[in-house]
Design goal:
This protein has 428 residues and is α/β, with parallel strands linked by helices. The protein is built from 15 helices and 18 strands. Strand 10 and strand 11 form a beta hairpin. Helix 2 packs parallel to helix 5 and helix 11 packs parallel to helix 12. The longest helix has 15 residues. It is globular, with a radius of gyration of 22 Å. It starts with 5 loop residues before the first helix and ends with a strand.
Length: 428
C-alpha cells in the first residue's frame, strides 16, 4: 500500500465513493466489525440534534477532562483543519496518527466502498480503541438512525433540538426528523433532551425502548440570575435535584445544560467550582465567536457564526436582540438550505448585507442569493468572493458597528482563512 500524507488521504477519501452521502449502516457496520471498533471505550455518549451538537460535545469533553477522565471526542464538520474532528485527551490527533488510522480502515474495508464521512468515522473509532479511553463522545453527522456513528451503541443519548434541515434525507416534517434522530436510542438507556416540544415519534420510541427521558423544562432546567450568571437544576438517578450557580458563558446555555445533566446522571460531574471555571472559559470557533480586527490604526468588531438553517437563525436573532447595536452581515449559504426561512428570522437584524457564494460546489450562486435577500427588503451588495465581501463590509463601518459573518461552515472557514493570511491582526 502506498504511503500517503494527510492531504493525499483526504483527497483519496473524497473520490472513493460515488455519493457524498449514502445513508445506511450495512457497509460501515461490516468494516467496523472487521476493525473491532464497535466498543471504543467503556462509556459512550452519542449526541444528535438539528443544532447545538458541537457545543454540547465540547462541553461534555471539557467537563470530563475537568474531572480527570480520559476522553475521546469525534465531531464534524471542521472549520480549518481535518484534525479538529478527532480529539483525544483534549488534543487534536496528529497527522501521522490519522494517516495510520486511515491505512487501517483501508486495509479492513477491502472491497467495501465507504463515503468520506464513513471512512473518517471508522478512523476515529479505531484511534479511540487504541487510546485506552474512559469515555467517548460521538457527534452524529446527519440524522441518527442511519448515521455512521450509530454502529456504536450509546450508553447515554442526547437530543439537542429538532428542526427542519437536510429534508432530502430526513423528511419534511419534525415528526420524520425526530424519528431519524431517535435511531441512536438503545433499550433502557437515559436520553437527555433539550427539545421542549418533543415530536410524538421520538416519545413513542423512548417508551418502546424503556428509556429514561430527562427533558429540559421537566427533569432539568436553567434560569438567569439577577445581575450576572445563571442557575441550573439537575436531577440524579435517585430523582433528587441539585442546583449549580454558574458564571456567564459564551455558548448556548440550553446545550451546556444538557452536558451538565448527562454527566450528573452518570455521576461524572466535576465539582461546582470546576463546572463554573470550565464552562466560563469554554469557547468554540464559529459559535457567536467575537473577535477584534486591527489594521492601519483602525479597529473593527467581528463575529463569526456557523448557523445555517432557520432554527439556528432564530437563535442567532435572539442573541443579537440581547445586544442591540449597529450591524452588517457577510453572508453566503449552500443551495440546499432554507434561505427564505433564514432570512425571515434575520431580515431586520442588519443595516446592510454583503453577499458572495462560498467557494464550494454546493454553494447557492451569488445572483440568486442577492435576489432572495433583496426580496426580503434588505439592502445588499454582491461581491465576487467572500473575502471581497468581507473587505467591503469592513471598509463600510467604524469600530462601533459589528460585522457578522454567517451562513455556513464554508462561509466562516473561508473568511477566517482569508483573515489569517491577510494583514488584519485578529484577537479575542
Amino acid at each position: 500500500m502506498m504511503t500517503r500524507n494527510l492531504p493525499q488521504w483526504l483527497a483519496y477519501l473524497e473520490q472513493l465513493h460515488p455519493s457524498t452521502i449514502d445513508m445506511g449502516l450495512q457497509r460501515v457496520a461490516e468494516v467496523a466489525a472487521r476493525l473491532h471498533v464497535d466498543r471504543p471505550a467503556p462509556l459512550v455518549i452519542t449526541v444528535t440534534g438539528t443544532n447545538g451538537k458541537g457545543s454540547t460535545c465540547a462541553a461534555l469533553e471539557a467537563l470530563l477532562l475537568a474531572c480527570g477522565r480520559r476522553v475521546g471526542c469525534y465531531s464534524s464538520p471542521h472549520l480549518l483543519q481535518y484534525n479538529e474532528r478527532v480529539r483525544i485527551a483534549g488534543q487534536m490527533v496528529a497527522d501521522a496518527d490519522l494517516c495510520q488510522a486511515f491505512a487501517a480502515v483501508e486495509q479492513a474495508r477491502a472491497e467495501i466502498s465507504l463515503t468520506y464521512f464513513e471512512f473518517g468515522t471508522l478512523a476515529a473509532l479505531w484511534l479511540f480503541s487504541q487510546a485506552g479511553l474512559d469515555v467517548v463522545v460521538l457527534e452524529v453527522g446527519l440524522g441518527g438512525r442511519l448515521d455512521a456513528v450509530n454502529v456504536v451503541d450509546a450508553d447515554l443519548a442526547i437530543l439537542t433540538s429538532v428542526g427542519l434541515d437536510h429534508q432530502e434525507y430526513l423528511g419534511t416534517t419534525r415528526e420524520s426528523v425526530a424519528f431519524e434522530k431517535a435511531g441512536i436510542l438503545r433499550p433502557g438507556i437515559a436520553v437527555v433532551c433539550g427539545e421542549t416540544d418533543l415530536p410524538s415519534s421520538f416519545v413513542a420510541r423512548v417508551d418502546e425502548l424503556g428509556c429514561r427521558l430527562l427533558q429540559r423544562g421537566v427533569s432539568c432546567d436553567w434560569q438567569a440570575l439577577d445581575g450576572q450568571g445563571w442557575q441550573v437544576r439537575l436531577c440524579s438517578l435517585q430523582a433528587e435535584s441539585v442546583s449549580l450557580s454558574l458564571p456567564d458563558v459564551s455558548l448556548p446555555r440550553n446545550n451546556l445544560l444538557l452536558a451538565l445533566q448527562a454527566l450528573h446522571w452518570l455521576a461524572l460531574l466535576p465539582s461546582a467550582e470546576a463546572c463554573a471555571a470550565t464552562l466560563g472559559a469554554l469557547r468554540m470557533p464559529g459559535r457567536m465567536d467575537r473577535r477584534w480586527l486591527h489594521r492601519d490604526g483602525k479597529s473593527r468588531q467581528l463575529c463569526l457564526d456557523v448557523g445555517h438553517n432557520p432554527h439556528a437563525a432564530a437563535y442567532l436573532a435572539a442573541q443579537l436582540a440581547e445586544r442591540p447595536q449597529s450591524r452588517c452581515a457577510v453572508f453566503g449559504v449552500l443551495a440546499d438550505k432554507d434561505l427564505d426561512g433564514i432570512l425571515d428570522q434575520l431580515k431586520g437584524s442588519f443595516e446592510h448585507w454583503y453577499l458572495a457564494a462560498p467557494d464550494c460546489p454546493r454553494a447557492l450562486p451569488g445572483a440568486q442569493l442577492l435576489t432572495a435577500v433583496q426580496q426580503h427588503g434588505c439592502a445588499a451588495t454582491l461581491a465576487a468572493t467572500l473575502p471581497q465581501a468581507l473587505e467591503q463590509a469592513l471598509a463600510s463601518v467604524d469600530e462601533k458597528t459589528e460585522v457578522l459573518v454567517f451562513g455556513s461552515f464554508f462561509t466562516v472557514a473561508e473568511c477566517l482563512q482569508y483573515l489569517q493570511s491577510s494583514d488584519w491582526r485578529m484577537h479575542d
